[in-house]
Amino acid sequence: MPTGIMKVPDELRDYYTDIIAHCYEPDGFRIAAGTSEGKVVTIIRNAETDDAYMELESHLPQNKAVLCLHWGRAGVFVGSKSLLYLYKTDYTTENEEDMSIPVKFDWTYDSHDVCTVENGLEKVFVACDDCRVRSVDVETQKVITEFKDAGSIVEAVNSSEEFVASGGQNGKVHVYEAQSRTNKPVFSFNLEGNRTIGAISVSNNSTWLAAGAFGGPTIFSLKAGVQLTQICVDTPKKIYTAYFDCNNAIIWGGGGGFVYKSEDFSKINQKMQTSYGRGKVSHIYSITGSLHKRLSVAGSTNGILVSDNGVFWNSMVYI
Predict the structure, then answer these.
(1) Which of 162, 163, 208, 254 is most buried when burial is the number of CB atoms within 10 A of its CB?
(2) Burial class (CB in 10 A: 0-12, 13-18, 19+), 264
(3) Is-above-0.85 flag for pTM?
(4) What is the DSSP string of 110-171?
(5) What is the CATH number of the domain that holds 169?
(6) In this structure, are strands 279-280 and 284-289 parallel, antiparallel, or unpaired?
């Protein structure tokens, strides 16, 4: 049952808390989010009335910043410094407080990003601070595979059913098999300028990969194993997040307060300013969507911008 309404007066909002990561429930309407102050929440939003309720609220030990978050089939995976958690939000329990008691993985690495294979329950992929991507068994909480050293700290990781892709501080992209039959990359690329890769995304059909550091993302053809041109942006800013929607259009953002969308990878087809009423997301750290054409953006504010059609913002939900 909902534990409290999410709409709060302006004077109660904490504008110094950034939302670092958020994600929709698979095939669902709920959203999970994590903040720079270690707060982890799941939100239920009624698209017709625009009321939003907090279902789960938890805090990481010592209020460690949430560095990454992903809602997979097993629940919400949360990574931080020397920490990897799983909140099993989908199981039935008579004690509602049990939902906020996470499963702690046997983990000693800083987790910079996390993802799962869309239809899989058995493992989660984590980008680590010791230059490796690891796959971890969800049931046993033990490491299954350590992929070959990426040569620098891994900042971003994303997956489809076929591929797992990572991006590092040295500007290098590595692509691995999602089934982990080998721990070596299938192929690798270098992003122009060797800048730190802040965002990486693999399309749902395992055809395209987007990697971004500054300006627009660079698109790779995973089937052909070749790099396409970088999408041009009039005023380049640092990229923090990228997301392929259900139609395989690429959506990205970062500094500058805008979200961009490209449908054919040759130009920007849509540019959205990240504000709604008095609320604004100046630095976009996280973009996520659902199979229901929903899209949401979060970052340097304690609010999440929500779109029910992916074209314009319907509301801003505060956590």
Answers:
(1) 254
(2) exposed
(3) yes
(4) -EEEEEE-TT-SSEEEEEETTS-EEEEETTT--EEEEPPP-SS-EEEEEE-SSEEEEEETTS
(5) 2.130.10.10
(6) unpaired
